[in-house]
Amino acid sequence: MIRIRKPAEPPEVLRTKGAKARRAMSAAYSRAPRSYASGKRSFEFDSNLYAHETVKQALREAQHRKCAFCESKFAHISYGDVEHFRPKAGWRQEGGEALGRPGYYWLAYEWANLFVSCTLCNQQFKKNLFPLQTPERRARNHKEDVTEEDPLLLDPAVDDPETFISFREEVPYALDGNARGEATIHALGLKRDELLEQRRKHLSLVKALRRLIELRDPEAEEARNQLQRMQQDFEEYASMTRAFLRGWPRNRSATRRPRKQQG
Ligand SMILES: [Zn+2]
Q: 189 C-alpha to center of ligand 1: Å?
């Protein structure tokens, strides 16, 4: 997971139709707050607004065509989901709990609340999870202030995920065991087997390039350029590659095996 910098200006559809829909939902909630909190009434959300092509396009660009959470590039096999950081239709503090209603309906078309993610991060793992460190501070309707909340999940548009999560080889871990890193790794399934396998493959290429440089191979210059590229935000798993190479001189001595005695 890396920091994501979205353009400050939201796409027009969110500023116009999205803002209008938000006002309508806020007014509807104010007329019948109990019905919405009990689930007797619920909001209908228009994916033509939050997942409008201009929104998707702006998010894809800001995210370097990677999943906001696992940093996988998926465009060649899947459309991906426009994901609401604060779940629009109901939240859970923990998996298995009943859904807290009505959810963050007033943020359904809010630029700051939207990301593009792969379907696994969104539908298999995060779903309606939105745990807070202090659950009593949760904003329950549009009159309450989400900036009072202390979310456990890292928001890649606000937090710098690399100061919370690092990697041992392909395996992510929370730096100094911090709670937000732990919660994020767990909630988003950042240690799932398939992802570990992809990262491991990626890392084996990083290691091979590094080896060429260490051996002063004739291709070392090209290898050095390639390693530079692989640490840029637009590359898959850039946070892992950066974490791995950050300790390079140390890794180099640690991973060099003693030569076997000949004869
Ligand atoms: Zn993902």
A: 9
